[in-house]
């Protein structure tokens, strides 16, 4: 009897232990299944500012299937995150996927971050592109006299903005726009991929930009701008697909970028004819370094042609040009006014070029017929040194303006290897003045050789610009979501 009671008690204990074990096992399986059903997005990146709040585009109805429009999702997300502008700022994460979208506008104290497998696809529905007035320093659109389509990623009157990623992609799907341009069917100027206006403390970094409808990156009327680690690719025959165009900007740094395009890789601007003169906002304190450029029909670095507000203190170094029409090009004309002065370029390698150097005072593309024939530009203090070029058709084409010569040109320690079918006359010079030292082939008489002892004559500033003192922070994003 006692044994039977003991057995029943023992069996009940065994059953209880078994039930507990089964419960624990089921809980463990449920937790494991729950973990399998969630993905943890976590990464770090460098930025001028970190954010206290985070969100994913999918939280606002974003669909990354390449066909669903996400214009509203982007704007809803950004509008929602604007409440945190004074509370540590916010970052919007764009996950892997193809995110079709029209133009959307950024906010201050904000970061847009693209996953490495995220692709923003620019919509080809013109209804998703609001129209803006022409830029005040231009007076008209570039493609048409009327306004211009808003850029894909747009912002104005902002401070502290970061557009970055893990080399995520922005595809402008530009062929639609290029065809409209060639057919003369555009009523408004084509959109750019990224344009930031009247803003301060801007970072654009670690992205791939493809097939822009027109210019790729356009900071304008802004200051303290960093453009880093950008890859820009467009067909070399695509119209006006400039890479990076700082326009009436102060304290800008462009570095570690790779650009293949149908126009200038970097075009420095400050307004067009009488409109740029009246607006009077120069581009100054610009650093360009570690740039690789391919552009068979344009320049690595172009100064102008819209330079009527002035361009001053540009420092470019460690540049590689491959199969590019010209290395450094200055484009201006009577009617432009303004100035290009204190330009410094060093350590540039050029391979297969039409011209190593090109300056022209006869670039006559005017905004309208109201340009001032008395508005002559000042081109002064142009310094090139420590350069090597090979397979070049013509060393230099330097054409100033009659009665308004380009002065203070200095070229030193430059070796240009001419192509097998190079022009018989490697240099052409009119209305220019300056000096050279250690330059091959021998320059024109207007740039007399000062001898090898002057080989370091051409200046390059030893001081740093304020943009070089910017310090980056290590920022993070962490969010889990179900799959």
Automatic annotation (TrEMBL):
> What start and end residues bound the annotated signal peptide?
1-34
Q: Which residues cross the membrane?
A: none
Q: Name one GO molecular function term.
A: polygalacturonase activity
Q: Keyword Ion transport, does the record have it?
A: no
Classification via Pfam families: Glyco_hydro_28
Q: Which GO terms describe its biological process?
A: carbohydrate metabolic process
Task: Extract the InterPro entries matched here.
Answer: GH28_Enzymes, Glyco_hydro_28, Pectin_lyas_fold, Pectin_lyase_fold/virulence
UniProt keyword list: Cell wall, Glycosidase, Hydrolase, Secreted, Signal
Localization, per the record, is: Secreted, Cell wall
Which family is this protein grouped under? Belongs to the glycosyl hydrolase 28 family.
Which protein, by its recorded name, is this? Glycoside hydrolase
């Amino acid at each position: 009897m006692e044994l039977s009671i003991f057995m029943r008690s023992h069996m009940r204990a065994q059953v209880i232990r078994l039930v507990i074990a089964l419960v624990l096992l089921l809980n463990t399986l449920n937790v494991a299944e729950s973990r399998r059903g969630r993905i943890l997005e976590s990464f770090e990146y460098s930025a001028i500012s970190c954010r206290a709040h985070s969100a994913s585009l999918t939280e606002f109805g974003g669909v990354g299937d390449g066909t669903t429009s996400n214009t509203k999702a982007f704007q809803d997300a950004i509008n929602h995150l604007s409440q945190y502008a004074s509370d540590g700022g916010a970052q919007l994460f764009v996950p892997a996927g193809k995110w079709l979208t029209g133009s959307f506008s950024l906010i201050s104290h904000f970061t847009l971050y693209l996953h490495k497998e995220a692709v923003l696809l620019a919509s080809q529905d013109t209804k998703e592109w609001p129209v803006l007035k022409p830029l005040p320093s231009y007076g008209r659109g570039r493609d048409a006299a009327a306004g211009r389509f808003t850029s894909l990623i747009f912002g104005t009157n902002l401070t502290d903005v970061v557009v970055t990623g893990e080399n995520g992609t922005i595809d402008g799907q530009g062929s639609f726009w290029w065809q409209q341009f060639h057919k003369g069917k555009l009523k408004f100027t084509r959109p750019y991929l990224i344009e930031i206006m009247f803003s301060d403390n801007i970072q654009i970094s670690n992205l791939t930009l493809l097939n822009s409808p027109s210019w790729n990156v356009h900071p304008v009327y802004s200051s303290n701008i960093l453009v880093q680690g950008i890859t820009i690719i467009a067909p070399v025959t695509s119209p006006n697909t400039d890479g990076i165009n700082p326009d009436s900007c102060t304290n800008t740094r462009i570095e570690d970028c790779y650009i293949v395009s149908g126009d200038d890789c970097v075009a420095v601007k400050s307004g067009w004819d009488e409109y740029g003169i009246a607006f009077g906002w120069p581009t100054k304190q610009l650093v360009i370094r570690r740039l690789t450029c391919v552009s068979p029909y344009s320049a690595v670095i172009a100064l102008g042609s819209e330079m009527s507000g002035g361009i001053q203190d540009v420092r470019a170094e460690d540049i590689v040009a491959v199969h590019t029409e010209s290395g450094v090009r200055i484009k201006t004309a009577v009617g432009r006014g303004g100035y290009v002065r204190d330009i410094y370029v060093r350590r540039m390698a050029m391979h297969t070029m039409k011209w190593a150097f090109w300056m022209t005072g006869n670039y006559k593309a005017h905004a309208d017929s109201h340009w001032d024939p008395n508005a002559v530009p000042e081109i002064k203090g142009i310094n090139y040194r420590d350069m090597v070029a090979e397979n070049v058709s013509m060393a230099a084409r330097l054409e100033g303006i009659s009665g308004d010569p380009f002065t203070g040109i200095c070229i030193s320690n430059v070796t240009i290897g001419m192509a097998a079918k190079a022009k018989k006359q490697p240099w052409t010079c009119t209305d220019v003045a300056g000096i050279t030292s250690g330059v091959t082939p021998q320059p024109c008489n207007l740039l007399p050789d000062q001898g090898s002892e002057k080989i370091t004559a051409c200046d390059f500033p030893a001081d740093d610009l304020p943009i070089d003192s910017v310090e980056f922070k290590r920022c993070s994003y962490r969010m889990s979501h179900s799959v």
